[in-house]
Amino acid sequence: MQLESIRSLGTRYNRDAAKHMRLELCRDVETGKFHLVKEMRSAAHTQNAHLAQVLYELAGVLTPKMEATNLPDSHAPALAAEYLGDNIRKLNMDSVVSGHADEFLNGFIVDCWLANWDVIGGYSSDGPEADNIADMDGKAYRMDTGGALLFRGFGDPKGPYFGNDSTEPDNFRNPNVNWVASRWFKYVTDEHIKTGIKAIAAIPDEIILRATQAYGPGNAREKAELATTIINRKNFLIERYEDLFTAAEKDELTSSISKLDASLINTVIHDANRSIEADGCILSVIKQLGRMTGLAQ
Known about the structure:
By secondary structure, this protein is of the alpha+beta class. Helix content is 41%, strand content 19%.
């Protein structure tokens, strides 16, 4: 990706980094496509957000396509997100209350799986609109994945708060823990949860491994640890909500690559194979660590 800046869209002060982070509209010289390019705190933050976007896509949740890159002039780490146009609007609470935002609520479990604490946005989202959710012709796009997986929205590590067990189904609906998210996710129903569980159950562990290999932050060992956590969180959520399903439905909660986008799978596999040449294979590291024995055999 070779970017040229079209115009600055301003800066946003990051209190944790104690600096203003730039946002620019850029054009890819090679393809002619436009991207919103957001400065990130480090290459690890960029890769973390990119991996989260790919996992959202694998689960069938709409996001702009993203790519790790650098700002065109300073070469600071940045995340390039597909530009969806000037006419997008923020998701309005009225759509959720009136029952016209099922697509948004169907992504709740995926938000929990990926621990996207900033999925709705900051405290400016305490009004009638969600800062980080775009509504395009009734389709809900998660616009910001920077607060998913390893890092908080402003970039500090989550540390032990991102673990094998997902506490987000409770936390995201508890106003004492995440007041902003709870205003929106209190409308989640069991049917929304079932839809999300089916979506993450359909992603094979191998594809999660390969996606983390291709796009995740860190060296091979760190990627292996991250992939293990992501897979364990998936299994935790499936087990937690298995009682919502009938016996026949439970039989369908098996990973099936045929349910996924073939072109996306091919891209993930291609990029993972390319990453192995530089970083080493994370599956071999998992075997060495004795983790996830079912996969490592």
